[in-house]
């Protein structure tokens, strides 16, 4: 992973350098949450017994390191992202999300296809996941949350720094 693992700007910069074309960012803004939800639904089907605790799923277990990493990068936004993941887990536990396995795989696949179209047609750059799969899968939802926060005027200094980083990259 680039720079310091817990350097928020370095982590967001890694992802931003692959996602600065507005249509591609819009595609990702829709389909990354879709992929997150469908991944969670699929992994929620995998039961895990941990320390004798019943009723856990792979989604519950994987949410913990995501939340910890996001909070380590930036506590306020990490707590917001963690709340979203907790709500997603609750929605799956309470079966507020009603999807079949076939629906989950279909939507998951279509969302990934849309992502690749965004890169090939609009960004004209290969996806970040081809350079760092783990970082891309972990950072993508957090990056999209930041893109939304930037739209609402939050973290304006960080937003400007990332824009400057992209301009510098594109000038090279």
Task: List low-confidence stretches.
Answer: none
Domain module count:
1
Q: Residue share in helices?
A: over 70%
Q: Cα-atom Rg, whole angstroms?
A: 17 Å
Enumerate the strands of the largest sheet in spatial order, edge to edge or round the barrel.
Answer: 1-2
The dominant shape is globular
Mean pLDDT: 94
- Structure annotation, total helices: 7
Largest sheet: 2 strands, antiparallel
Write down the secondary-structure element order. HHEEHHHHH
Provide the β-strand percentage band.
5-15%
GO biological process, one term: sphingoid catabolic process
Protein name: Mpo1 protein
Pfam family, one: Mpo1-like
InterPro entries: Mpo1-like (IPR009305)
What descriptive keywords fit this protein?
two-stranded antiparallel ribbon; mainly alpha; 172 residues; single chain
Explained architecture:
The chain has 172 residues and is mainly α. The chain has one domain (8-171). It is 72% helix and 5% strand. The chain has helices at residues 8-16, 22-43, 58-73, 75-93, 101-123, 133-151, 156-171, and strands spanning 47-50, 53-57. It has a two-stranded antiparallel ribbon with strand order 1-2. It is globular. The two termini are 21 Å apart. The relative contact order is 0.18.
